[in-house]
Amino acid sequence: MNTLERALIEKASRENGWENIIESHDHALILASARHQARATLSADNTAGILYLQLSSPLIHKELLRCCTGIVCEQNKIIVPAIELLARLLRRAAELAQSLPDQAARTYAVRVKKELEKILPGSTEVERLVRQRVGQDTFREALLDYWAGSCAVTGIDLPEILRASHAKPWADCDNDEERLDVFNGFLLSANLDALFDRGLISFDTAGRLLCSPKLAPQQLSSLHLHDGLALRWLAPEHEHYLDWHRSKVYQSTKNV
Q1: Of 97, 130, 159, at which residue does a domain stop?
Q2: Residue 50 confidence (pLDDT)
Q3: Range of the domain at 11
């Protein structure tokens, strides 16, 4: 890559979530960020005039392929023919890196440690409240990153009305890794969040909306719930938590 190409690539990297260049070679750059653990390698094919993007996390790579349609891979490297596409891919990869695979749990641990240093030792109830508050804030941020700031069902992108909905509730999780797992929940508009939390809706194995028989037809109509609603996407990692929600939370009969 020539000097101009390198400058454009470095600018796109810094502006889209990869502010640190930790290695720089004649034909490659390795990118990083203080906000997540992932690495991105950009290598150039001067003969073909294209770039290759390779990510350190297979999960981020898989999710990037799923949400950015039309991109082409060659031996686990994403072919990037234009700087505009590079900027879009890097931005989305950075969002995913801030929530996957376990970045939310890492962020939570750092934040909790700082917050607990401010309180008196032995304040068990205060510590519990601090952990829960920090955890919920961190989980919401991770879901906003993972779902690109839009409702997992409707696609509405108004942050003020979006809620981080756990499939397996905070209190029922076995550990912090489950509580902060970005696949243990969905970013939902406030009305869908309330319904999901109370088990009045869930989602089937294909991500299609399930409505409890406790909801009358008139209520379904007023809430704008219908058979066409579904999750915008569903990863295999969601399935364990959704199965738990359907069996433990979802009100599948009128008598519940």
Answers
A1: 97
A2: 84
A3: 3-97
